[in-house]
Write a structure and sequence with these properties.
Helix content is 43%, strand content 15%. By secondary structure, it is α/β, with parallel strands linked by helices. The chain folds into two domains: 197 residues, Spore Coat Polysaccharide Biosynthesis Protein SpsA, Chain A (Alpha-Beta Complex); 74 residues, no CATH class. An eight-stranded mixed β-sheet has the order 3-2-1-4-8-6-9-7, with helices on both faces. The protein has a two-stranded antiparallel ribbon with strand order 5-10. It is globular, with a radius of gyration of 19 Å.
Length: 310
């Protein structure tokens, strides 16, 4: 399994955080094939020779791709994947840290030996190796099938990623992982959640906006409905989805400060503008995929890791 992993990371103005992230990749040892870092149009210039202190096994494998204009994470990760040559992609946020190798080893073993699995989801951990107090890919303590991963802590088979043509650029950010995993499920590949606390995520407040996140969560649910729901279902449920989006914004007070109505209208404007492109990109998913998705969300069926090499 040596030299299988391409680590893909995007960074703009979180230089200190990404330096720690890169340092932590040395814990992967010979699993690490390369590191691709997108320098995403930082507003403050990066320090000269800012990565000279990295461990040599990381520094010698580091490739920096620069973008003069800021790109959204969906497009940025697709650009990195186009250049990557490893058989498995390790997606990390620039404020993620690899804590230990064991869980990565297990996930890599599954991806290389179980052809029905396309990606591995990991929990978000604190730096001392405990579960972080925010949303996780699965609310269980055992290996299981799940609906999606988070790009702060995930492994994805490169061949599956390219069969799916990567993340959907129209979504820009927030919800793109679940949309990817729905298409992955439709193609016959599962997402497996491993509860190993091997990756820490310390969400930095730099360049993050909770108000914007709330708006995009509501908007992207509408985008995904147009992209993938069979037409009869879309016709019957879309008005309800608009109501659900408004309700999400209204009750997400910790993110919106209670001023939700302008966000709702911004989401509507974005949706109206993007509708022709959404219709052009539309690829309805099979009904059995949607039903399976709902089943997994309710039951999180166990995954027998002992059968991974069968």
């Amino acid at each position: 399994m040596a030299h299988e992993i391409s680590a893909l990371i995007i960074c703009g103005d979180r230089l200190d955080e990404v330096t720690r992230c890169l340092e932590s990749l040395s814990r992967l040892g010979d699993l690490l094939h390369e590191v691709l870092l997108l320098k995403n149009a930082p507003t403050h210039p990066w320090r000269d020779n800012c990565f000279d202190s990295l461990p040599s096994r990381v520094r010698n494998r580091l490739h920096i791709i620069s973008s003069d204009e800021p790109v959204f994470p969906t497009l940025g990760r697709n650009q990195l994947a186009e250049r990557a040559t490893g058989s498995v992609y390790l997606f990390l946020d620039d404020d993620s840290l690899v804590l230990e190798r064991k869980g990565i080893d297990e996930g890599l073993h599954i991806l290389l030996n179980d052809s029905s699995v396309g990606s591995i989801a990991y929990p978000q951990s604190t730096e001392d190796g405990k579960l972080a107090p925010y949303t996780q890919p699965a609310p269980v303590e055992h290996a299981c099938f799940t609906c999606g991963f988070m790009t702060c802590a995930a492994l994805v088979r490169a061949d599956v990623y390219h069969k799916l043509e990567g993340f959907q650029p129209l979504l820009q950010i927030y919800g793109e992982e679940n949309e990817f995993c729905r298409r992955q499920l439709d193609m016959g590949y599962a997402v497996v959640y491993l509860p190993d606390t091997c990756i820490c995520h310390n969400p930095s407040p730099v360049a993050r906006s909770n108000r914007r996140r709330a708006m995009l969560n509501a908007r992207n649910a509408w985008y995904q409905a147009v992209l993938h729901e069979p037409l009869p279902l879309l016709a019957c449920t879309f008005l309800l989805r608009l109501v659900q989006g408004a309700r999400h914004l209204r009750y997400a007070r910790e993110w919106t400060g209670g001023k939700w109505l302008p966000l709702f209208f911004q989401a509507l404007r974005d949706f109206t503008t993007a509708l022709p492109a959404l219709c052009h990109a539309r690829k309805p998913l099979a009904v059995k995929t949607l039903l399976r998705w709902q089943e997994i969300k309710k039951s999180y069926p166990p995954y027998a890791t002992a059968n991974a090499s069968a």
